[in-house]
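Batch manifest, entry 17 of 40.
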Amino acid sequence: MGCGLIWFSGVAAMPKPPKTVLVLGDSLSAAHNIPLASGWVHLLDLRLRKMVPPWRAINASISGETSLSGRNRLPALLKTWQPAVVVIELGANDGLQGLSLPVLRDNLAAMIAMARKARARVLLLGIELPVNYGPRYRDGLRAVYADLAREKHVALVPFLLEGVALDPALMQRDGLHPVAAAEPKVLDTVWQPLQPLLRGRRASTRTPSEPSAPLSHHPHPAAG
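Output type: structure tokens
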């Protein structure tokens, strides 16, 4: 009986695992064509681990991911990692493939609901399309993120690549993905609205007064 008590005391004294930020995204979060350690999610993990108490980032991003495939994968990810915060960075591939914007909205809304049911706070990361997609579709995509953030009361980054996309020195030759040197700037864009969520608060939705800078034209729209 004495050994059992000692064993139980030892288990009880074990430190709790760090709280988790789960990032569900596409190639923009999966460190496309750059070292994994240079990607903004890995940089986020390094920053989180320095906090007291420490957090961690789990990168569940896959290049080519659409909102539907992310929606299908999220339940298992929530069960496995039990995150306190879920960052959703999806929709770029839906847009680049010209998929239905109402379907995108439905998928994102479902993922927000799943995360909240799992008691996780949500940060939604928006994206812009190349100008050759036309103003109607581009404005519609932008509205999907803004409307969801407002209606569901979730934190929003309107454009993940704000301050990066129009600088050729910060973008890869495909015109869609940042170079490694730009990833710290991407992290800074995410970090500002993420911080209140780490403290258990709801971040205010940041909606730009003017449309964000568009991505440059790219001849292979399904590459993301």
